[in-house]
Amino acid sequence: MHEFGRFFLPGPTDIRPDILAAQAGPPLPHRGAAFEALFASLQPGLQHVFGTTRPVYVSTSSATGLMESAVRCAKPGPVLSLVNGAFAERFADIARACGRDVTVLEAKWGDTVPLEQVEAELRQRAYAGVTVVHSETSTGALTPLEEFGALCRAHGALSLVDSVTGVAGAAMQAEAWQLDFVFTGSQKALAMPPGLAFGVASERYLATVHEAPARGRYFDVLEFEQYVHKHQTPNTPATSLLYAAAAQLAYIERESISTRVARHEAMAALTYAWLAETREALGVPFCIQAREHERSPTVTCIALPPGIRGDDVVKGALDRGFVIGGGYGKLKATHIRIGHMGDHTVDGLSLCLAAVRETLADLAS
Ligand SMILES: *Cc1c(COP(=O)(O)O)cnc(C)c1O
After folding, report:
1. What's the rounded Cα separation, in Å, for the pair 105 and 177?
2. Domain 257-364 is of which CATH architecture?
3. Is the pTM value of this prediction over 0.90?
4. Residue 318: which of 12, 8, 14 has the closest Cα?
5. Which of 59, 134, 164, 337, when mutated, tests ligand 1's pocket best, judged by the most ligand atoms within 8 Å of its CB?
6. CATH number corresponding to 17-255
7. Domain boundaries along the sequence of the chain
8. By alpha-carbon position, which residue is closest to atom 15 of ligand 1?
9. Is pLDDT above 80 for 226?
10. pLDDT single digits (tens) 264-291
11. Is the pLDDT of residue 45 over 90?
């Protein structure tokens, strides 16, 4: 039996044993009433975590599948990409791979691209869409999105939002924030097994989807839209993962999304307080990569002082029974990341942080 509470990677995240067990449901014909009932049962929970009344698509793929959908099915024209970390860079790369002419607005890794800069660029040129990563998992930065959708709309562009480590851990109001395409993956703050992606498109996004030059088939938003109303998936679904999703969404409903977000914020606050104490106790300058007030509640990226290597910290934590993340991309050697998302608790996280502090004390001495 899997022991929950030792796996603090910023994705995939730890999964409760009852959710792992829920995957063992029976096979079902996917064009039939029992499957449609299962599929329909996911919708209220998914709409709740996305903050939408629109139907939520379920893709049998990791989140990258819907990153591709987002740009591929957007109306024709150039794409503006806000790049402040590895996943934001990947989003821009995917847009290029889908044949878009991509302009990049860059921020230092750990920062976010200011809205004023986005506005200035949108004034310069007519963009079809703007890609942004809500919670940048490589740096722990959270881009505020409350005004982002409206800004894109004012300039005729679609807002395309990677909220893979946002949804179900950070506040998300896809509809109220006027976002046009928002997606996540099952294995991050939703704390489900990997293999599903969830996404929601606005009416506005759908209004021009038929203009997209080559939507392909597997990740075609129009197919998702047509089938979701029948409570079906376009192709054979990963039914066992849908059983797990149903169980976990019921659990999230019981917790309530506001309590869930507050728990994530409490875990993030604990991590910041722990880091300040650790810095003081060891006399070593560790610091948080993202700026205050722009930090994700689901992941913290910590810059290590010269002489302490990310790999060694990860290994030391593992020797003490905890899995944490190393730095990602160009921050690999010099940073570590703690994933405090999903179903972890403040008490559980404090055990992990104690083990990391012991490791840092060893390595700093
Ligand atoms: C994990 C992650 C992805 C990629 O998700 P996959 O499920 O591995 O395809 C994309 N964006 C962000 C911000 C992520 O954290």
Report:
1. 21
2. Alpha-Beta Complex (3.90)
3. yes
4. 8
5. 164
6. 3.40.640.10
7. 17-255, 257-364
8. 137
9. yes
10. 999 999 999 999 999 999 998 999 999 9
11. yes
